[in-house]
Design a protein that fits this description.
By secondary structure, this protein is of the alpha+beta class. It has one domain: Arc Repressor Mutant, subunit A (Orthogonal Bundle). Helices cover 40% and strands 22% of the residues. The chain contains 3 helices and 6 strands, in the order H-E-H-E-E-H-E-E-E. It has a 4-stranded mixed beta sheet with strand order 1-5-4-6. A hairpin with a 4-residue loop joins strand 4 and strand 5. Helix 1 packs across helix 3. The radius of gyration is 12 Å and the shape is globular. The N and C termini lie far apart (30 Å).
């Protein structure tokens, strides 16, 4: 599984559900290509930057946001602040 394939899978998942947790994505990626997953400072599985870059290219604009506190991607809500990163 390449970074682009992971990003395409993420877009597909978000078209079917309102949220996508990083832990779910990391688990999926780890089963197919463990080299694209690492442990971050908090000990959580995190995604290689190449995946995040590919995902950003496939989801331009601000329709999808990253909720830092919940560690998930989700669709933008009316109360969100400008920008992709939300609390």
């Amino acid at each position: 599984m390449t970074p682009n394939e992971v990003a395409e899978w993420m877009v597909s998942e978000l078209s079917q559900r309102p949220t996508l947790y990083q832990s779910r994505v990391a688990g999926h990626v780890f089963r197919h290509n463990p080299e694209l997953v690492y442990r971050n400072r908090n000990g959580n599985k995190a995604l290689h930057k190449s995946i995040l870059d590919a995902f950003r290219k496939l989801t331009p604009g601000d329709e999808i946001v990253w909720s830092r506190s919940s560690q998930m991607w989700r669709h933008r809500k009316p109360h969100d602040k400008p920008g992709r990163m939300q609390r």
